[in-house]
Amino acid sequence: MTEKRVTTPLTAETVRSLKAGDRVFITGIIYTGRDAAHKRLTDLLKAGQPLPVDLRGQIIYYVGPAPAKPGQAIGSAGPTTSYRMDPYTPAMLEYGLKGMIGKGMRNREARDAMVKCGAVYFAAVGGAGALIAKTIKKARVVAYEDLGAEAIYEFTVEDFPCIVVNDVYGNDLYEEGVKQYQRA
Amino acid sequence: MREIQASKVTETVARLCMEANYDLGEDVLDAFKQGLKAEESPAGQDIIKQLMQNAKIAADERVPMCQDTGVAVVFLELGQDVHVVGGSLVDAINQGVKKGYGEGYLRKSMVAHPIGDRKNTGDNTPAVIHTEIVPGDQLKITIAPKGAGSENMSGVKMFPPAVGVEGVKKFVIDWIRAAGSNPCPPIIVGVGIGGTMEKAALIAKKALLRPVGQHHELADVAALETDLLESINKLGIGPQGLGGRVTALWVNVEVYPCHIASLPVAVNINCHASRHKEAVL
User: Fold this and answer.
1) Which H or E element spans position A171?
2) Does residue B186 have a cis bond before it (omega within 30 degrees)?
3) In B82-119, which positions are buried (b, 16+ CB within 10 angstroms) versus exposed (e)?
4) What pLDDT sits at residue A148?
5) Active site residue A136
6) Above 90 in pLDDT, residue B117?
7) Which of B58, B65, B35, B56 is nearest to B47 (CA)?
8) What is the DSSP letter of B120?
9) Mean pLDDT throughout B100-126?
10) What percent of chain A has pLDDT over 90?
11) Angle at CA of residue A86, ends A164 and B51, nearest 5°
12) pLDDT at site A70
């Protein structure tokens, strides 16, 4: 497994350098978003309206964090299941989003859009929310505060651990990994 | 009649909500150790190690092991000689959920109207409560917070009896294969066979309360559990679906008598965070 360190925002060159199976540590700003926020964002894109946060070149982390205890930047914050965001993904990538972090398989349309628009999908370890929260140094809500855990947060992360699942070359680590280990 | 104060129920539910989300059971921790030995994929081994580390941080720092602290599913075994006083039992439980999720810094994940505006209720109420009236003068409360990632990958199918145990096996295996990486493998699988549609679903969920590593007392059901676990772990899905040997840590099957014309089967998937804590009042 190759280990890579990347900083955000992601350049086209960085995105092209990432391959399915790479272990990646992300440092910089990432944004959160899940079902309800994606619906609002893509409704704005459809209407030709500006988004409340400039997400071009950025990474969205699919997460609904637990509340912070006193002394914490954020509560437990592992990935949520990504397929629920598939219907919104082509529009987000056409707009200029460059990375997504979540867990679980993406549909054909989302994967095709990654190849077409030059974007990458990372998986974080689902269920490791307490461990992942240690890499999130700062958190603040930047849009849709009314959505509570589903609001858009800006996270400042240091060495946030994840693995590249879908790269711009059309590779899919879930398909390849399972093929390698399945027994008839 | 033995009297139990509603306020005592509230305090107990609040405590159990927090403990269930902070403290992963010893049974799952042991299963991680076994899984680490069985896993051949380096990435899979790394993931199991991270989950072990995560469980330790959650327990030591009193934070939830997963941000999805779930729907508060509550199983009650209410002794028929118990009289709850000082308020309604259901209100007492919901007050306990509100208190536990608030004071425990747990995520509030319930929306009031599923097809309406889906506005968050703000305190993780209402709980989903299953009550059984049993002999005796005690009240057993089990809190089993259930996250959506694995719950969304669950299902029920009504088979004709002719499909037999082979048909049941095929359904479960196909179901787990289709769920793939979504329910955060390594998973724990609850299977309910028999009863009616809702009974099969309920016993599948109850199956998840039985400790990992403990087989059903009926030999043929225990054999089915072993068989299903082996077959699931041949799928190659592995930890987090990235490929590997350890897709499931354990399979628990529960059975119930059913109609001459029916063979209901339910699969309820749990992620590794098999959260359940109980208390007897």
Assistant:
1) none
2) yes
3) bebeeeebbebbbbbbbbbbbebbbbbbbeeeeeeeee
4) 84
5) no
6) no
7) B35
8) B
9) 95
10) 95
11) 45
12) 93
The tens digit of pLDDT for each residue in A3-58 reads 999 999 999 999 999 999 999 999 999 999 999 999 999 999 999 999 999 999 99
pLDDT at B201: 98
Annotate A132-145 with b (16+ C-beta within 10 A) or e (fewer): bbbbbeebeeebbe
Task: State the pLDDT confidence band at A1, using cuts at 50, 70 and 90.
Answer: confident
CA proximity to A101, closest of A120, A131, A128, A122: A122
Report pLDDT for A128.
95
Give the CA dihedral B174, B178, B180, B182, nearest 10 degrees: -130
CB atoms within 10 A of CB B169: 17
Q: Residue ranges of the domains in chain A? A: 3-181
The CATH number assigned to the domain with range A3-181 reads 3.20.130.10
B54–A77 CB contact, under 8 Å: no
SS3 call for B247: coil
Residue of chain B minimizing CA distance to A166: B242
Domain residue spans in chain B? 2-20+65-146, 149-274
Of B43, B66, B184, the CB nearest to A1: B43
Mean residue pLDDT of chain B comes to 96
**Chain A residues with CB-CB distance to B68 below 8 A:** 64, 78, 80, 129
Report the pLDDT value the prediction gives residue A184, as an integer from 0 to 100: 63
| A181/B245 CB distance under 8 A | yes
Residue found by looking up tokens 């879930």 in the block: A174
| B208 vs B221: CA distance, rounded Å | 15
pLDDT of residue A149: 83
Q: What is the DSSP string of A101-150?
A: EEBS---HHHHHHHHHHT-EEEE--TT-HHHHHTTEEEEEEEE-GGGGGG
Cα separation of B205 and B70, whole Å? Answer: 14
**Which one, of B83, B55, B74, B62, lies nearest residue B12 by Cα?**
B74
Determine, for residues A129 and B107 on separate chains, whether the beta-carbon distance falls below 8 Å.
no
Q: B149-274 adopts what CATH topology? A: 60s Ribosomal Protein L30; Chain: A; (3.30.1330)
